[in-house]
Amino acid sequence: MIENKIPYKTYLDENEIPTAWYNLRADMKVKPAPLLNPATHKPLSADELTPIFCEELVKQELDNDTAFFPIPQEILDFYKMYRPSPLVRAYCLEKVLDTPAKIYYKFEGNNTSGSHKLNSAIAQAYYAKKQGLKGVTTETGAGQWGTALSMACAYLGLDCKVFMVKVSYEQKPFRREVMRTYGASVTPSPSMETAVGRKILAEHPGTTGSLGCAISEAVEVATQNPGYRYVLGSVLNQVLLHQSIIGLETKAAFDKIGVKPDIIIGCAGGGSNLGGLIAPFMGEKLRGEADYRIIAVEPASCPSFTRGKFAYDFCDTGMICPLAKMYTLGSGFIPSPNHAGGLRFHGMSTTLSQLYHDGYMEARSVEQTSVFEAAELFARSEGILPAPESSHAIRAAMDEALRCRETGEEKNILFGLTGTGYFDLVAYQKFNDGQMTDYIPTDADLAVGFAGLPKVED
Amino acid sequence: MIENKIPYKTYLDENEIPTAWYNLRADMKVKPAPLLNPATHKPLSADELTPIFCEELVKQELDNDTAFFPIPQEILDFYKMYRPSPLVRAYCLEKVLDTPAKIYYKFEGNNTSGSHKLNSAIAQAYYAKKQGLKGVTTETGAGQWGTALSMACAYLGLDCKVFMVKVSYEQKPFRREVMRTYGASVTPSPSMETAVGRKILAEHPGTTGSLGCAISEAVEVATQNPGYRYVLGSVLNQVLLHQSIIGLETKAAFDKIGVKPDIIIGCAGGGSNLGGLIAPFMGEKLRGEADYRIIAVEPASCPSFTRGKFAYDFCDTGMICPLAKMYTLGSGFIPSPNHAGGLRFHGMSTTLSQLYHDGYMEARSVEQTSVFEAAELFARSEGILPAPESSHAIRAAMDEALRCRETGEEKNILFGLTGTGYFDLVAYQKFNDGQMTDYIPTDADLAVGFAGLPKVED
Predict the structure, then answer these.
(1) Angle of helix A237-257 versus helix A55-62 axis, rounded to 10
(2) Which of A88, A177, A378 to mutate to test the interface with B (most CBs of B within 10 A)?
(3) Are strands B9-10 and B87-89 parallel, antiparallel or unpaired?
(4) How far apart are CA A148 and CA A113, in angstroms?
(5) Which residue in B368, B8, B53 sits closest to B239, CA to CA?
(6) What is the domain range of residue A107?
(7) Whole-angstrom distance, CA of residue A213 vs CA of residue A196
(8) Rounded to an integer, what distance in angstroms lies between the CA atom of residue A404 and that of residue A450?
(9) For the segment B136-165, what is each residue's pLDDT rounded down to a tens digit?
(10) Other C-beta atoms within 10 Å of B437: how many?
(11) Do the chains contact at B14 and A11, CB–CB below 8 Å?
(12) For the CA atoms of chain B, what is the radius of gyration?
């Protein structure tokens, strides 16, 4: 018998689900740099953004001051279908690692999208519906965001058009079927459906696609079709705002069991999960009320935090999107095709970039075979088959727990288990067959992406 | 806003998880008929069963009198990793159906096996481990049971060998990878690895396999390898006993919110989910303490309750397993290859068969296109992509709710949502493409199976 006073899973009651999102930027002394117009290099106004994004979301995007945004009741109703998500004490993993550390994870995978992405998908779809739009367009990499948006749109009766990075489209045919079951249309990107897609295909006929390229296509379709807007699953401030529900629930659950985490670990692609998970904890840190070690974990094959430049860059390959100041590998950077999971965006949330730049958090990169080793051990001990993305955080959490075994420290380690790997079995098969390899870009590889950075006077 | 006093999801606390399984047979006036030795047609003794099954499980299998079996602490610890499962009020489905009925479902899909099968897998693996065995063998159809057993064996450090019905193996390659990730070996059945497999392949070279055939192979391997036993995911009394955790939790959750179901609906293949879900409710019914309408739902393409015979039959195609008295289509019956989901066993739990025979429950069959229509509507309203098996129960629950719309009755309808459809996307794709067809066996088709029934003096 495993002795435990703290339950395996801590659930909040439904009436304890937070009713307002927390805007981390309100507590930042140095605010994230504004988005710039890609032509004029001037800060973008709300008027310039509303042809692309829904009006209410533009307000959220630009608001660096309001700390709390009430969550509309319709969104809370939807949240209740799959939230609160459990805060899990990883008793079995601790035992297998023989560590004195206490490991906790916030598990966001218990919904059909398989990840935390649904938290922002329903919010963005709701505001589109409220604005009277016909539908939304988006891109998806690993497919979780596209699935989440399809679910939200089906629920609200909105049209949904998804551009899916070609390599993922081919590796994950079943993701497409889930999205279709929820009524969405799915196009592999780059495609011949858009001007930007045709241009990229002409220049790089064999390309396996990138998130940056899929974004360009989705934005083009949204801006050229009346009644449509573009929505994005990560990177943006509005997304971090919606995802703060993860951290707020986590903090409330910790308070319930009387625990305070020492180390908080999240995987980082565009920053949606990490930004959401850490939000209230980072808020305390910014206000000087508490201290936490906060660690971002990214793939060694797409290392924007650890090897990128902190500079203004395009968010998309087609260079039609706003410029954002962020840690970036350059909008022309495309991860090696051997890269198996998501976390493949060339840039990073402007908010998280600023916090990292200002020393409020750490970052590290990990190689994918070591990530899948961690995933397998986690699956066999904790029962859940994790998404490759989430497994980056597992890897780092395990490394910290093993360090505690050396030092004897009983640290409380929290990580975000963003999702499940049920649609990543091609990658797992590669790992099971011993065929998985690692890829670390050389400095020369990275120089190609950096060469494409726009010249912006700061 | 949806007005609700009753929460969307009712979770028990961890310390409210039932600590004993309930044995329905204890309250049956007419007990299920005993298993017979296939050679002598005499009731099987414990000694005859222990070469096939673990000792403790044989005791559970044969015990018609003990009402409660305490759940060992090690199993309770494992249960806490994914239980309690939520009892969900389907507010959104009710709204879409515009019904005065209140619909509830017990959702067993929030674990990596994707279904309720884990409840019995961990129990059977635990007793195998306790007996000092090296490993276990089994069969799997849709793949849920095989996955569940792989997870349980990985957790306990047991070897696990799975024979997977060939048509499922081909339709669900990713199931195999999940099982491999948990360290199991997976063989498509019929295979050349066993005498019975070779015989079946010689007689039916193009066969897509059947559960009955996979069972024969798994039993052969278990009985011919020292330190191995065979375990089964459904049909057996011991499995229904372990699965009673579903119904016990459901009843406790209903008591917590002060609701009593009027109609209880479960899909039925071998009976594991149905038997578990209804256990405590049927107990009350048998003891005359309460009344419930209890409905078993099965595929029109594999209609053992609604069109089978109540007779002694082999549990496997190879005719090496015990004879069980049950509703059966004959051990030679193989569902049409167009049958997309699980629920493909030719027979039915002896316990449920007796209860059905004695008028304690109803049964109906549904065709698969109408099942997938129900699944799609459910996914789009309740968010969860259901397993095809579970969707049989959804279909019947929706039909009952629509009937309430006609009559204006506010009935409380409970159904078992046994699992998720994340590995059933080939079937969903067929449905999305409008390529799914129905198949109802003719009387002549069924006569072939019935002709193979053994002659047993009752």
Answers:
(1) 70
(2) A177
(3) antiparallel
(4) 5
(5) B53
(6) 83-114+237-451
(7) 8
(8) 38
(9) 999 998 789 999 999 999 999 999 999 999
(10) 11
(11) no
(12) 20
Q: A432: closest CA among A356, A334, A320, A340?
A: A340
Query: Which residues does chain B have within 8 Å of residue A159's beta carbon, measured at their own beta carbons?
Result: none
Mean per-residue pLDDT, A108-134: 97
Q: Is the CB of residue B154 less than 8 Å from the CB of residue B143?
A: no
Cis peptide before A84 (omega within 30 of 0): yes
Q: Which residues 6+ apart lie within 8 Å of B78 measured at CB?
A: A383, B122, B126, B152, B155
From chain A residues 394-433, the ones with a CB under 8 A of any chain B CB are 420, 422-423, 425, 428-429, 432
CA distance B245 to B63: 18
Q: What phi-psi label fits residue A339: left (phi over 0), alpha (psi between -120 and 50 degrees) or beta?
A: beta
Rg over alpha carbons for chain A, rounded to the nearest Å, is 20
Do the chains contact at A382 and B154, CB–CB below 8 Å?
A: no
What ipTM was estimated for this complex? 0.93
pLDDT in tens, A197-256: 999 999 999 998 888 889 999 999 999 999 999 999 999 999 999 999 999 999 999 999
Output phi, psi for A36, to 5 deg.
-110, 150
- In angstroms, what CA-CA distances link B236 with A41, B100, B130, B272, B351? 71, 38, 20, 8, 8
Q: What is the pLDDT of residues B84-143, one digit of tens each?
A: 999 999 999 999 999 999 999 999 999 999 999 999 999 999 999 999 999 999 999 878
Of A126, A165, A171, the residue nearest A146 (C-alpha): A165
List chain A residues with CB under 8 Å of B177: 425, 428-429, 432
Specify the CATH number for the domain of residue A283: 3.40.50.1100
Half-sphere exposure of B28 (CA within 13 A, CB side): 24
3-state secondary structure A356-377: HHCCCCEEEEECHHHHHHHHHH
Smallest CA-to-CA distance from A421 within A394, A452, A455 is with A394
Q: Which of A74, A91, A181 sits opposite B376 (nearest CB)?
A: A181
> Is-contact B281 B431, C-beta < 8 A?
no
- Which of B8, B74, B380 is opposite residue A14, by nearest beta carbon? B8
Count of Cβ atoms closer than 10 Å to residue B144 Cβ: 29
Residue A126 lies in a domain: no
By the 8 A CB rule, do B231 and B112 touch? no
Cα separation, B157 vs B151, in Å, equals: 10
Q: Is the Cβ pair A177, B429 closer than 8 Å?
A: yes
Hey, CA dihedral for A304, A305, A306, A307, is it positive or negative? positive
Which phi-psi region, left, alpha or beta, contains residue A215 (left: φ > 0; alpha: ψ -120 to 50)?
alpha
Question: How many domains does one find in chain B?
Answer: 1
Residue in chain A lying closest to B420 (CA): A112
Q: Please check the confidence at residue B321 and state whether its pLDDT lies above 90.
A: no
Q: Is residue A345 domain-resident?
A: yes
| Inter-residue contact A116 to A108 (CB < 8 Å) | yes
Q: pLDDT > 70: what percent of chain A?
A: 99
Flag whether B27 is in a domain.
Answer: no
The model's pTM is 0.95
Q: Give, in order, the Cα–Cα distances in Å from A336 to each of A189, A222, B237.
A: 16, 29, 53
For residue A386, what is the DSSP state?
B
Residue A176 lies in a domain: no
